Hints:
The structure holds 2 protein chains of 2 kinds.
Chain A: E1 10-14, H1 18-30, E2 34-39, H2 42-51, E3 57-61, E4 63-64, E5 67-68, H3 70-78, E6 83-87, E7 102-105, H4 110-116
Parallel strand pairs in A: 1-2, 1-3, 3-6, 6-7
Antiparallel strand pairs in A: 4-5
Chain B: H1 8-16, H2 32-43, E1 48-52, E2 57-60, E3 92-99, E4 106-115, H3 125-135, E5 138-142, E6 149-151, H4 153-158, H5 169-174, H6 178-191, E7 199-206, E8 215-226, E9 229-239, H7 241-277, H8 282-303, H9 313-322, E10 333-336, H10 344-363, E11 373-381, E12 388-396, H11 405-409, H12 411-424, E13 427-432, E14 437-444
Parallel strand pairs in B: 10-11
Antiparallel strand pairs in B: 1-2, 1-4, 3-4, 5-6, 5-9, 7-8, 8-9, 11-12, 12-14, 13-14
Amino acid sequence: MTTPEQRTPRVLLVEDEHIVASALSRGLRVCGAEVIGPAATVEKALALIESTPTIDGALVDINLRGIQAYAVVDSLIAKQVPTVLATGYETSVVPNRYRSLVVLQKPFDPADAMTALGLS
Amino acid sequence: MNWLADAGELGRMIRDADWSTTELGAMDTWSPSCQTAIGICLRSPVPAVLFLGRAERLIYNDRFIPFLPAGSHPAALGQPGASVSQMVARGTFATSPIVGVDGVAVEGKLCMYAGPPRASTMDDVHELRAAVDLVGLGRYRSDPLTQAIEWDAHLKAMWDLTPDSPVDLAVFLRGIHPDDRDRVAAALGQSVDPAGDGVCDIEYRVVGVNGGFERWVATRGKTVFEQDRVVSFHGVVLDISGRKRAEQTNVMLIAELQHRTRNLLAVVDGLAQQTLASCKTLTDFAVPFRQQLATLSRVQGLLSRGEASPVMISELVELELSALGAKPDGVRVIIGGPDVALPSRSVQILALGLHELATNARKHGALASRDGQLSVTWTVDDNGGARRVLLKWEETGIVARGASDAERVGLGRTLIEESLPFQLDAETRLVIGSDTVRCSVALALE
């Protein structure tokens, strides 16, 4: 029998730079997460959200190949998935309606993302 | 003629001239006051000129020559003054009459240089008008009698109004960007407060009375008070859209630079971890990591040229090969393909991949073998409307040195087989044979 507390938390990773995505995946795994993804585009991220029954948290780079990833964020919020944003820009670029979300400035420690997601 | 001794070049010329044919008569008939005046003129430390007799004949000193119309010296000497009158415009001259010994007869006038021409035309109304037009200033003021607001045609044009349109406060506010109206109204309110300095100095956006455009303007106005009562105000409005655009571009560039820098640091962090994971000891880490940093550094140089000058695939290949001392010679190292501009987001990851391939070729492959040959070629195909480049990296003639396949490709395999497909949707293939290395990359160009 597995209770949610004992189950390995599933974290969706949305990041378009492969070297960064690989390092974050490794870091999240070290922190005890199972990584969903990584997804490099909005479409792939949306498809993963659609096809994954349970997501316990999401780490989303808000700029994917020059396209803003807020469609992904909206979909996660709609499913009440705890979400942390990542960006290379100033955190002030995040629109007001996402102000309640934690924004991490790159580069950051994957452990900080886990803490912000309440999964550490 | 002692009175003409030591009086310069002009002194000699006056002495040698024949004056008897003029109404002044021969020189020995000239009056003492006339001779004295000529002496003063010729020996004057400043430019000086004499107008002598009825015809105001010209006599001048050496220093006056530059004030004559170009080329008219020495012919001007003794000529009637009217024929060379424009020379006075080149300077300001103090004039005094030459009065005869009888104290009555005026024999001429002496003009001494007193300074540069007067700045007479700078404040001329027409010049000011031209200056206002040149700068594109719009002007406004209150009518002292009716207190109505008057705008000039420039200002009306900024608000999208015709020159004969009436204006009032409501029209003024309607032409301002809705987000800026309160701020402008507050600034105006402050400037008509007798407790303040009466100055209005504010920058805001104008959309015009019909909307449809946006320009930035700067206003500077002054309210005049009399016993705490506003008696008039006036001011100017300048279109500063160009400057504002440049400022906004700057802000955007700085944000982009921050974005790039932080992403680059994240990539460096990731590369360090990846490289570290592939090393047995920390000593093994230093060389490849430093080379990766050097590759990133070269790429930044290419990318900083901006969108107008895209990175060509040939220069990226040559750059990464030459960094390891491999120059295309058409025999051992062959590079070739059509001109292809790379999408800017593909440059960095492609450079890292090429660097790893080249490093392996140098350590274990074609560049380390006496008869090895490296060929990097590419073609472009249409692929049903989606243009893509097909890059082939081929090493042949490798003499195996017993290094394992894993050692022989190192990080290259991750970059080629995982990073390029993930990040660029590229199709890649990497095959390590006993004496060959073959890698192909198909990359979309749009």
